Amino acid sequence: MSHCHPETVNRANWKCSVMEGDLQQLRSNNRNLTEEKEQIQEEISQIEQHCSSLASDNNQLKENYTVLTNYNNHLQKIYSITAKQKDVFQNNYEALINKSQHLRLFCDTTDMQKPCRPCPQGWEPFNSSCYFISKDQKSWKDSRIECLKLGADLVIMESNEEQGFFKGKTDDYWIGLTYYTKTSDWIWLDGRSLTGFQKLSPHYLDENCARSWRTSWEAWTCDTKARWICETRALLLNHL
Prior knowledge:
By secondary structure, the protein is an alpha+beta fold. The mean pLDDT is about 80. The protein has two domains: about 5-85; about 125-235, Roll (Mannose-Binding Protein A, Chain A), CATH 3.10.100.10. Strands 1, 2, 3, 4, 5, 6, 7 and 8 form an eight-stranded mixed sheet that branches. The chain has helices at about 5-105, 140-150, 160-165; strands at about 125, 130-135, 155, 170-180, 185-190, 210-215, 215-220, 225-235.
């Protein structure tokens, strides 16, 4: 039986000791890695739960956004309807104010016992209209402004009878008729074209406004000074 050399034994023991130390270190490292792995897995699990929670919150936010968008669209429709109703109410209010102011021309608002007049004081009635014949002379534009201030407009002739009503009252006055160069047509203030019972003298250059001259109508330059006649509706029950 052979015997190992002491140096060989010592070297072997040293190697075993080193390997034992390495093994212990590996075991320690393995435990540390296992703990780190478990910690990482726990963190991953928490992250996954957090992501799931965020996804759920995101879906809820999307649902809320859809609900709010639909609600906003509904409010926009309500606002649009309300704005239109406001415009209608405003127009009705302004019409009522205008009618009230117009009514004051015919009725004594300080004494409601007095009957209303068919025409404002100083105006002349004919059929269903009232007429104001000016004493001053102004241009066609300024004459119309004066009529508008009175809640009326320049007269629009409807018939020979209406034309004849003014015979002897005045022979020279502006009427609500102007010439439109774009259409080469004479247009009444209510938008109708000149047709029917009356004709105008030939139109020259800038003679774009019409006035009654004795028994005919003539084209004149609009800056010419002349008297004018305003027309408004007579006070009728079915117009109140």
